[in-house]
Amino acid sequence: MQLEDVLKDVLVDVADHIGEGKVANYIPALAKIDPRKFGMAVVTVDGDIHVTGDAEEAFSIQSISKVFTLTLALGRVGEGLWKRVGREPSGTPFNSIVQLEQEQGIPRNPFINAGAIVVADTLLSGHQPRETLGEILSFMRYLTDDDTIIIDAEVARSEQQTGFRNAALANYMHAFSNIHNPVEKTLGVYFHQCALSMNCVQLAKAGLFLANRGLLTRGGRSVVSWERARRINALMLTCGHYDASGDFAFRVGLPGKSGVGGGILAIAPGKAAIAVWSPGLNANGNSATGTKALESLARRTGWSIFG
Ligand code: GLU
């Protein structure tokens, strides 16, 4: 199987769907992105890179950042993190507040907004927001060996000005003592991590350790243990697409994490990390054409964690 050819076929499969879906407009800076963009990158565990479309154009990775902050937070506080955030799919939209009251301020999982805000709070403790953001940015640059990655200050500001729901979630959890730092500082970290600007190649490179038993490259340095990589993949599969996580597992069969910027990072363990970008979102806030492209790629490669 030539991945180069597979990517060409994927592009043909999705060509009629490029531009479908609705670009996220609740963050004003994202509303102006061209919905007809489409890019995909596959980075194999051997380090080969295959691309198609706008794979080298940077976009706002938004919630895909939650995979990397979770990795950092597990490194920082270990299993203790699970006292403050659960590991169950929520079955609710990404910014839902309903479960937080019944579950006393403990978010269902680290990939819904409430959970990611708690994760950001753990990274902030003992630091200033600037230091925590520096740590996150350094981690992304280390994983990709690429110092050009930046946080888009305009996107962060845009979300800061309109992120009332996230402010509500953070304040609500503070009332349950599950946010330990000043709410504005924790939210500042969260909004800026979401504003990381990366292209598909960079994103697939950053996720490769999850396909590679926790190693940066085959036989290379360890980012996390094999067990931890497996567990992060498990959370991506069960919780990575909010209330459409089951549908994504059914259609694609790989762990994945989406973001409202239209990106998705998917992991084919032992094979490759895949990043796709198409800004139009479906009703669940996940990239419409990006999901179709991953479905096509998984079918054509036979990659699946289900056999
Ligand atoms: N920054 C976005 C928010 O908090 C992230 C949501 C997403 O990408 O799914 O609303």
What does this structure look like?
The protein is of the alpha+beta class. The chain folds into two domains: 3-62 and 198-301, DD-peptidase/beta-lactamase superfamily (Beta-lactamase, 3-Layer(aba) Sandwich); 63-194, DD-peptidase/beta-lactamase superfamily (Beta-lactamase, 3-Layer(aba) Sandwich). It has helices at residues 3-14, 28-31, 65-77, 98-102, 113-124, 129-144, 153-162, 164-175, 183-194, 200-211, 226-239, 245-251, 288-301, and strands spanning 39-44, 49-53, 59-60, 150-151, 196-198, 256-258, 263-268, 272-277. Strands 2-1-8-7-6 form a five-stranded antiparallel beta sheet. The chain is globular. It starts with a helix and ends in a 6-residue tail after the last helix. The model has no long low-confidence stretch (mean pLDDT 97). The site of glutamic acid has 11 residues, from loops.
